[in-house]
Design brief:
This protein is an alpha/beta fold and 226 residues long. The chain has helices spanning 15-27, 45-55, 65-68, 71-82, 99-102, 119-137, 140-148, 152-159, 165-179, 182-191, 197-205, 211-222; strands spanning 6-9, 32-33, 58-63, 86-91, 110-112. The protein folds into 2 domains: 6-143, Toll/interleukin-1 receptor homology (TIR) domain (Rossmann fold), CATH 3.40.50.10140; 154-222, no CATH class. The chain is 56% helix and 9% strand. A 5-stranded parallel beta sheet has the order 2-1-3-4-5. Helix 9 (165-179) packs antiparallel against helix 12 (211-222). It is elongated.
């Protein structure tokens, strides 16, 4: 997967507006990742989206009434916030975020792209993106140094399987009740980092938004397999 600086999240109903935004941003020399354009043929969509969010430096959320009620948009925003990716919200309609999204979105990072035409608003967006990316670049050398200092032995240990395949499949099924098809990718990745089953369950629980659902997931995973 080619790393792109900006991940563009949008509801399918806003596809035309999202592609117009991408065209404008890329005309200013800023690379964007947007589905389905940048998903490889026959690729796992969920894994591709999660990977692209993790690799991005900024998420641009095309926000509208449709995006406000989209479970997929909410999951993408949650992933970005969880990974420490800045979220820049571009409102194409005069709509306020629902409670579930308001928790993750900072009003300090909102831009309004209405009324029409949108091009002048997108020009302001590009200026904001350049500022955010420039600030992020200043921290890149320190991060690269830290990665270079990682022990090869530790990397090999992280790659070794620690959990039974049947147990991982069970956790995937339980997690899918709350996060949908992303569960497969999340379990696979968390299993590489966790050192015990208890730690793995807690890591996966952290991917669930609602506290009640997190507790329910932990309880289900603690019950003996049938």
């Amino acid at each position: 997967m080619t790393r792109r600086d900006v991940f563009v999240s949008y509801s399918q109903a806003d596809r035309d507006a999202a592609l117009e935004l991408v065209s404008c941003v890329e005309s200013h020399g800023i690379d964007c990742w947007v589905a389905p354009r940048d998903i490889a043929p026959a690729a796992d969509w969920a894994a591709e989206i999660v990977g692209a969010i993790s690799a991005a430096r900024v998420m641009v959320l095309v926000f509208s009434a449709s995006a406000n009620t989209s479970p997929q948009v909410r999951r993408e925003v949650e992933r970005a916030v969880h990974k420490g990716v800045s979220v820049l919200t571009v409102r194409i309609e005069d709509v306020l975020p629902s409670t579930s999204l308001e928790y993750f979105l900072s009003t300090q990072h909102w831009l309004d792209a209405f009324p029409a035409p949108r091009e002048p608003h997108y020009a302001r967006l590009c200026a904001h993106l350049r500022s955010i990316l420039a600030a992020d670049s200043s921290a890149a050398p320190a991060a690269a140094h830290a990665r270079a200092a990682e022990s090869p032995a530790a990397e090999r240990a992280a790659a070794e399987p620690r959990f039974d395949t049947a147990e991982l499949q069970r956790l995937e099924l339980e997690l899918a009740r709350f996060v949908g098809p992303l569960a497969k990718h999340l379990v696979k990745r968390a299993a590489l980092r966790a050192t015990s089953l208890e730690e793995l369950v807690l890591k996966l629980a952290g991917e669930i938004e609602a506290a009640g659902d997190r507790s329910r997931f932990i309880r289900m995973c603690s019950q003996p397999a049938h």
